[in-house]
Amino acid sequence: MFNVKKFAIISVAAAFCIAVIVSCVFLFSVKKVSADFTVYGDSQAEQIQKDLDRFTGKSLLFLDKDDVYKVCDKYPYYQITSVEKSFPNVLKVRVVKRVEAFKIVSGGSVFVIDSEGVILNDTGETEYPGNVIPIELKTVDIERAVVGEKIKTTDDALLCAIIKSAGDLGLSDLVESVEIDDKDTRRNAVITTNTGVSVVVWDVEDFGGEKIAKAFETYETLGDYEKTVCWITAYRENGGEIKAKWTAFSPFEE
């Protein structure tokens, strides 16, 4: 008799727990995926929204946010920057379109990347060519180039210094191209401007960002004619102060 009563109590308790769990699952199931898109130009927002809508009906309690972040893995131009569970039944997602910043040219390969080095495409095609700075790698090799991932080279620190400096200084409107090469064991950056003057950054691996900044500070002080011809060289004097100067003579012949 005791065992029957105990079994009945346990059965009722179990049924109650199941009912509570089922109610919670139903109450906290996703009814809406609210996606906030920051997009310019061509848009894949509609396709992404459809993929996000597949989370509708899933339990918000047990939903793994990582699964939501992975939605944009097949959309390299897009990045999910935040996922928020808004109880009882709304999933809030913020989606940002990556901005084309640089075109990496190496041998016969061309990759368009954003300011963080993420490869957006391996065709070299761009939506707004005027906003993209070509960077030609001559002495730096590409080790891994997968669309949607950060580009890997034999000298990531050097490439990072170039793209960070160009991004921080907002040079997209002024720079026509960047070439990374070496001369006499020195690795240098040659920056061609849209106005005509070329900027040579000696030993760009050493305080490259500061040298580029100093070079373009000097550029702003030049007259209209000087901005159209010859060279600006940026260097570190005897391992100390960073300097830049305009010169009428080719720095490669000094």
Shape: elongated
**Any low-confidence stretches, pLDDT <50, length ≥5?**
none
**What's the helical proportion of residues?**
25-40%
- Specify the structural class: alpha/beta
As a percent range, the share of strand residues is 25-35%
Oligomerization state: single chain
The sequence of SSEs as H and E is HEHHEEEEEEEEHEEEHEE
- Please provide the count of β strands: 14
Give the strand order of the largest sheet, numbering strands 1, 2, ... along the chain.
6-5-4-7-10-11-12-13-14
Biggest sheet overview: 9 strands, mixed
Q: What is Rg? A: 28 Å
Mean pLDDT over the residues: 86
Ends: how far apart? 106 Å
Q: What is the tally of helical segments? A: 5
In short:
The chain is α/β, with parallel strands linked by helices. Helices cover 26% and strands 31% of the residues.
How is this structure best described in words?
The protein has 254 residues and is α/β, with parallel strands linked by helices. A hairpin with a 2-residue loop joins strand 4 and strand 5. Helix 4 runs parallel beside helix 5.
